[in-house]
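task queued by scheduler; priority normal; single chain, no ligands, no partner chains; default sampling; output format set to structure tokens
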Amino acid sequence: MEFACSHVVCNWNPEGSLMGGSDVMGSGLSVYPCSPPSEGGTTDPGVAIRLSVTEHMYDNRISVIPQQEPGLVPPPLPPRRFESQKYPRRTSLPPPPPPLSSLPPPPPPLSSLPPPLPARGAEGQGEQSIRLKANVNVLSLSVGRLVDISRASGIQTTQCPVMRCGRCSAALSSLSSVQNTQETAVWLCEFCGLQNTLSTSGPGTGSKLGSRVRGAPRGRDVIYLPLQTDQDYENLEDVMVVFCVDISGSMSVTSEVTPGNAMRSATYVSRLQSIQDALQRALSSLLKTSPHRRVAIVTFNDEVVVYGDGSGVPVSLRDWALVDYDYLRQQGQQYNTPHCIAESYQHLSRRVKELREHGATALGPAALVSVAMASRFVGSKVILCTDGRANIGLGEMESPAPFSSPQSPYFYRQLANEAANKGVIVSVMTFEGTDCRLAEVGLLADQTGGRVNIVNIGTVATEIQSALADNILATGVTATLLAADGMYFPYEECNHCLVRDIGNVTEGVEITFQFACKPDSTESFMRRDRLPFQLQLSFTTRDQQKVTRIITEQRRVTTSSWVWAGSLNMSVLGVHCAQLCARLTMKGRVHEAQRQLRAQQDLLKDIRPSLMRQLRWCTR
């Protein structure tokens, strides 16, 4: 786990000031998924309250200068004395000086004097402190690295069951406080405060977990392995690649391609021709690098044609079949298993050359058949190439409003969940200047770990090669993040426990979380030294092992929205801003996404001068 800030900023709120509230910049959009629950468990609307700055008995270890509250100004300077003022003359001589023996000792040298007090008011603001305009309570997870247990040689592993809290499901860790007695042990959960009675000799009367404490792992990073796998050994190289290609009439649109030789005139290449050239390159590359990989081709226009490995008779699906979900899935699952590309390369190459564009766009049915074919092998890929929105069959999105299907978003969401559960990666390639409704079709890639690329005729071959290079490391990945009771996750969860289904994970996948403190819990957090965080990552490896990895950390707290610039990780904040804006845009909250982007840009502008001043100070 990588945090964007060295401390937890307790009193951050959507306005970025010391006043709590649920409305975001007066836009009416709340960062709470629901009204944050109060201490009594009921849900109340966000109420603006004044948060006081509490004195700490410990060192925050961070340069923090609180904002000067409005109305609190330095006292006025005393009136100046002018020369015109008259003072009474002295009528007697001053007293004689005291003897030398009674004089105080000389002052210490300048080097031993304490530093002067900072100036009062706004002039006392530190040069290294910044005003937070965005939430820096952000956590980043490199999921691709965390699920790759082959690289976790130094991590503690165990086959013992996970000991969880009876209320919030937090796991026992090195941060847990356990009080042992003769027969039982009591664990006070550091996340929700529940007293869990653990049995040390077996399940007891008051046992809530019924597990043995003796020998239980108590590390900060623990990998829990199963006692045995659910299935027999599987060949990890036995996967399938399905190319799902749009051959509708719009694929005949041409674009100008400038030749490399200046003496030659420009040529025009259609979208289908560029796809054919890209597929020929991909087949040649797979033949050299992965000769045992299975490859199949599915095309769609006003019908869906399943070629498989190209050696058999194609199967055409049209008319009523394009609206029957179960029938389409059955046809894909029961189609002949393609041979490896070393045996079918010539057949596949010939089928690609024979493709011709015409007709409508049955994108949804073709995607369903392709996913059903690939689902027979865990780790398979479906590469969907299209230039327009679906206008026939399941998932169609081009009918007039009274006749359009309201089930289209549900269809793509259901298909994405099915592909993720089967361990299939779906990547979507669409041409620039077209509208295929990526908000719906993009769900196939977003939930399966695939790519969404807007390509042109010159880059489609490179993007297909990049999609082929993505290999699944784990399937069915679920991330559970727990924070201290009284915190919440803006835009996602109003509770202190967040569960996010990730699905398939490939190398390099990174996700971010944003958290904040509820206004009614800020005062209690200000009196605490540290706050705990726990990540529970559950996944299934390629060899069908169900693994749980639990990481527990704690972070110090700070009580002000003025934070030292050197304590921020801008790379984490940048990735989080991109992911958050993308999610908000996909949900239609474009104005909120723009507001988040502006807040991030303003924060970056404030940090750059501060970092430059720090650099100049260090180089003196």
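post-processing summary
- The CA atoms of residues 255 and 319 lie 33 Å apart.
- The first helix runs from residue 143 to 146.
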